[in-house]
Every structure is written in C-alpha cells, then in structure tokens.
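Researcher: Next sequence.
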Amino acid sequence: MADGSNKEVEIDTSIGDLKSREEDIPGRLNEMYELLVHVKRGQDTLRNVFDDKIDSLRRDIISTIDDKIKAVKVDIDLSFCDIDDRIKTLENNMKTLANSTQPSSLTDDTNITILAYNLNQVQGQTDLIQAQKLVEALGADNIEIGEVVRLKSRHPNKPGPIKIAFGSLEQKISVLRKKMTIVNHDQFKDVYIRSSKTHTERVIELNAKTILKEIPNGHEFRVRGNGRIIKKTNENSDTFHPPISQA
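Model: Next structure:
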C-alpha cells in the first residue's frame, strides 16, 4: 500500500511540474521576443552607424577629389596663362623686329638705292633734278626716282654723295648696268656710281680692305662693289673708291 501511495504522489508532482512549465512558456516566449526585438534594434542602430560613417567617408572622398580637381584646374589655367603671355611677348617682339627692319624711308632700303659720288650741286637745281639728268645720261629707260637725299661730305673740297631711291630693284639694276657709260658724258664723267650697302656689307668690305693693306702685295688688289677681291689693272687702278662708312 505504501508503495502505491508513493507512486501516486510522484505522478501528482510530475503533473504539477508540467502544468507549471506550461504556464511559464508564454513568459519565456515573451522574453525571447523582447530579446529578438532588442537584437533587431541593435542591428538597426549598428546599420545606421555604418551608413553614417559610409556617407561621411563618401562626402570626404568627394570633397577631396573636388579639391584636387580644382587645384589641378588652377595649375592648368596658370600654365595656359603663362603660355599665352609668352605667345603675346613673342608676337610683340616679332612686330618690334619687323618694324625695326622696315625702312623708314625709301632711301633707307638698300635694295632699291644707289649712291652717286662727285655729283656737284648746281645753283637753281634740286638734287632730284640732278639725279634725273644723271639717269637720263645713262640711257636707262622707264626709271622712276622715288626719293633723293644728299649725304654729308667727308671731304672739304668734294660734294656729299647723293642717295637715289628707285621704284624697284629691277630699275636699280638697270641703272647699275649702264653706270660705266657715264664716262662718255662730260657733265658726269667724274661721277662714280655704286649700289647702296647694308651695315654688314660695309663692315665686310672694310675688313677686306684692311686685310689687303696688311698682306704683302696687297696694294695690287682691290675690293669690288660686290665684295670680290680682284687684281688691279691699268683700267681700274685709278678708279675712285668712296668711303666705306657711307651707305
């Protein structure tokens, strides 16, 4: 009998425990639900933190890139400005050089001018009239005289040479080709005609004459108007040679 009673007690106790556990299930479920909600909230909070950090990093990167691009653009603009300044400087220098080489008057252009030495001044006649008569005496056709200027004389007893500017290089060449015929005219037989020369050409001629003076038998040679050095002959030994320093 005692054993049967004990078994009944144990069964009752087990049933009581089962009922107690069944009563605790909703509470535990609630605890688990609250835990899940807390984890979910923590997850959302962590996601928001990461999103904020990513957004901040994105803004920093974009800002840094923008700053770098702006800095590069400034450098490029400065480089182009420097190039533009150099181009403008070069253009100005070229214009200045072009203006400096451009003859200020016709008689400054050695391509179209000649020099006539020993052409006396005649009272009542201008140098232009004298130049026209000289050209007519040479027999050169279709010659246009653009300008005439008389240079300062370097010899007290001789008139200064006159520089004659023609309308073109061809006209100048035509006159020079006939210059040897001037000896056939009594009025101009003492006149010496030669082409105008640039400063460089005059320096070269002067150097050549200086060398001839220093070398043995240099007096037997002379420098022609074109710069060539030739041996003197009876025909040219008495030829008048104007000062080289005059254009």
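Model: The mean pLDDT is 81. DSSP finds four helices and six strands in the chain.
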